[in-house]
Specification:
The protein has a domain of 54 residues. It is built from three helices and no strands. The protein is mainly alpha-helical. Helix 2 packs across helix 3.
Amino acid sequence: MLNPFGSQQVPGSYTGLQKRVLQHVQYMRVNDGIFQVVQNAYEHALLKENVVLSREERTRLFSQILKSVLEDMIKKLDDKAKT
């Protein structure tokens, strides 16, 4: 049976685990999924607010919103790690 986390010198070894798990998560395109969820919510919010923005303004605002969402996720993760 193939190891889904790549080759290891010692099965179950913690050495390189973060890198192997990250590769698996990236293979599953999690980043794209998170990006898409935030983008859909952003577009829905703009429609709800009935606001018209130029393409450049939409892009800049989306970038700011995405950054805020990701920073909030990191803060929540850090808070959980402390408990």
